[in-house]
């Protein structure tokens, strides 16, 4: 597994409106706090993570670039589904977010990978 | 046409909201189709309700306008005059030749695996714009984001990418982004603007026609001073440094020719670079409908009509000019559409104040465009090994080879030879950079689909419409 790309000091985080709207997700197996209404990208940024994809060609790390769903740089695998735009997709309790290597299909959940090729 | 005519408005930003309210208030059934999970677009982007906060640094007058739009939308929705389809990502608008009516095709929700269609007698495109970012060494490093992206993440999710930010590029957006990041707790190490005060002075006569806008700019400048933000004009970021993420940027002063001045380079440590070089209009839907463009924007007449019957356009898609201009254009477009849908020629005197605002704000936008131009020598600073097409990982050396050795003279030929522009974003992020490197004009993308569409959605479409499937 790639080393977590962490930053020493975490950026400031918003406070939850109601504590019952906080929950936990995982990123590459590490538990991260999340708030209802946050996008996957926001949860990762708040944890100091800025990269969650390696490019198909040179295997270079990428994360959010345009932030509004246009550039597709922030693609990520969520619950076995690759190529989700982290800047658009809202987190749900228990989401398993994983760094996406290459096209994302190599380690996609089998049924999803199969469905795509039908 | 049904007894009560219908209008599909694509986009729920300032232009789309103003248009929807104007049309719905005049007896038109409006369907507002928007990709956002809440109305507002990028400009009035609101934090998710569960995040206990209000958008940072929203100036008071913008807050009032937003409240008026939001409350108006709420009233019309409650009365059944507007249907608001959130989370609908429109990928194509088709005009039925026989009837002159329209079908708006969209993908639902963030997963975008299911399709949806809306039918309407007319369509109003308020699809906004996106940021132009020109390439430079290191711009693909995590931690380098668009200025608008940093703002969007801050407005919508109250999220920051790091602790220490540099804001760079050119354009009026950099000021509010720097102010918002500083107010949210980031240390803004520098605001690096390639335009200089001299350029602003040359355009002073056009700029002073908008005292409100100047006051807004001055307000940002005061707040930046209060946050201790250093502003470097006539400077540019020449390189972003780091291995797996951004660690620092090198900035240089620009000489008279817009090239980095030798000996002026300095390194600024930072973990965030928010960069932008102006905005480009979203024109895909209009292009597919056959609307004529003027440059990179949709061409419209005084009523905001495109040259395709039944298609109106307003806001950034008809030329980037900011939210106030979008509101004026949207209002005019909505009123025009309502009158035309009832078979009447509208009386422009009814929207005279909006028309006057539109004239002033377009002149102001033209003046700003002339001030905020990327430095003339930017392409020379892009090293051959700099990735230009982020999706397909095509570097500047490949683009130069396509032009210098293989003789490519336009964006399309460069794309065919190098794959630059063939990836997920369909060239939206790299077209301006490739055009600059290749020395050819930035032309519209001509994308039949405005976003990637699953084959299953297309297949289901053929079934539901009773059209022949594959033969």
From TrEMBL, chain B:
Keyword Oxidoreductase: yes
InterPro entries membership: BFD-like_2Fe2S-bd_dom (IPR007419), BFD-like_2Fe2S-bd_dom_sf (IPR041854), FAD/NAD-bd_sf (IPR036188), FAD/NAD-binding_dom (IPR023753), Metab_Enz_Cyan_OpOx_G3PDH (IPR051691), Opine_Oxase_asu/HCN_bsu (IPR017224)
Residue ranges annotated for the FAD/NAD(P)-binding domain, each copy included: 6-323
Keywords: Oxidoreductase
Record-annotated BFD-like [2Fe-2S]-binding domain positions: 387-434
Domain of life: Bacteria
GO molecular function, a single term: oxidoreductase activity
PANTHER family assigned: ANAEROBIC GLYCEROL-3-PHOSPHATE DEHYDROGENASE SUBUNIT B (PTHR42949)
Name recorded for this polypeptide: FAD-dependent oxidoreductase
């Amino acid at each position: 597994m790639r080393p977590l790309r962490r930053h020493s000091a975490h950026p400031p985080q918003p406070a939850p409106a109601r504590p019952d709207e906080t929950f936990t997700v995982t990123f590459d197996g590490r538990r991260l706090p999340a708030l209802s209404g946050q996008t996957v990208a926001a949860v990762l940024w708040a944890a100091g993570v800025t990269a969650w994809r390696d490019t198909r060609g040179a295997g270079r790390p990428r994360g959010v670039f345009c932030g509004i769903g246009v550039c597709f740089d922030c693609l990520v695998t969520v619950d076995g589904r690759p190529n989700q735009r982290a800047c658009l997709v809202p987190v749900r309790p228990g989401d398993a977010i994983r760094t996406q290597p290459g096209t994302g299909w190599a380690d996609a959940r089998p049924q999803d990978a199969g469905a795509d090729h039908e | 046409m049904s007894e009560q005519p219908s209008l599909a408005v694509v986009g729920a930003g300032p232009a789309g909201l103003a248009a929807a309210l104007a049309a719905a208030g005049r007896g038109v059934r409006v369907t507002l189709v928007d990709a956002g999970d809440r109305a507002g677009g990028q400009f009035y982007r609101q934090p998710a309700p569960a995040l206990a906060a209000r958008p940072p640094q929203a100036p008071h007058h913008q807050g009032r306008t937003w409240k008026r739009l939001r409350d108006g939308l709420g009233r019309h929705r409650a009365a059944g005059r507007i249907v608001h389809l959130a989370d609908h990502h429109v990928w194509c608008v088709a005009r039925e030749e026989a009837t002159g009516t329209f079908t708006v095709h969209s993908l639902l929700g963030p997963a975008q695996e299911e399709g949806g269609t809306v039918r309407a007698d007319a369509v109003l495109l308020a699809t906004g714009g996106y940021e132009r970012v020109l390439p430079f060494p290191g711009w693909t490093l995590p931690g380098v984001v668009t200025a608008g992206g940093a703002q969007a993440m801050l407005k919508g999710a109250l999220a920051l990418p790091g602790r220490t930010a540099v804001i760079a590029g050119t354009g009026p957006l950099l000021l509010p982004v720097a102010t918002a990041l500083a107010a949210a707790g980031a240390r803004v190490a520098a605001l690096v603007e390639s335009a200089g005060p001299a350029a602003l002075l040359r355009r002073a006569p056009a700029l002073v026609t908008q005292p409100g806008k100047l006051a807004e700019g001055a307000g940002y400048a005061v707040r930046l001073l209060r946050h201790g933000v250093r502003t470097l004009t006539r400077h540019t970021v020449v390189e972003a440094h780091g291995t797996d993420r951004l660690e620092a940027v090198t900035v240089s002063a620009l000489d008279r020719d817009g090239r980095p001045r030798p000996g002026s380079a300095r390194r600024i440590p930072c973990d965030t670079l928010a960069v932008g070089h102006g905005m480009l209009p979203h024109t895909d839907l209009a292009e597919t409908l056959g609307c004529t463009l003027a440059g990179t924007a949709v061409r419209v007449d005084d009523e905001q009509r495109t040259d395709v019957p039944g298609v109106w356009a307003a806001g950034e898609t008809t030329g980037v000019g900011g939210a106030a201009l979008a509101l004026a254009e949207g209002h005019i477009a909505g009123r025009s559409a309502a009158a035309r849908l009832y078979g009447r020629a509208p009386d422009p005197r009814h929207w005279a104040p909006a028309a006057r605002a539109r004239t002033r704000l377009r002149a102001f936008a033209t003046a700003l465009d002339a001030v905020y131009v990327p430095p003339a020598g930017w392409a020379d600073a892009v090293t051959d090994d700099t990735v230009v097409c982020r999706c397909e990982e095509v570097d500047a050396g490949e683009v130069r080879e396509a032009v210098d050795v293989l003789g490519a003279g336009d964006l399309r030929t460069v794309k065919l030879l190098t794959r630059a522009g063939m990836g997920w974003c369909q060239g939206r992020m790299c077209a301006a950079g490739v055009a600059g490197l290749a020395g050819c004009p930035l032309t519209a993308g001509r994308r039949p689909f405005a976003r990637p569409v699953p084959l299953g959605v297309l297949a289901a479409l053929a079934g539901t419409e009773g059209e022949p499937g594959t033969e």
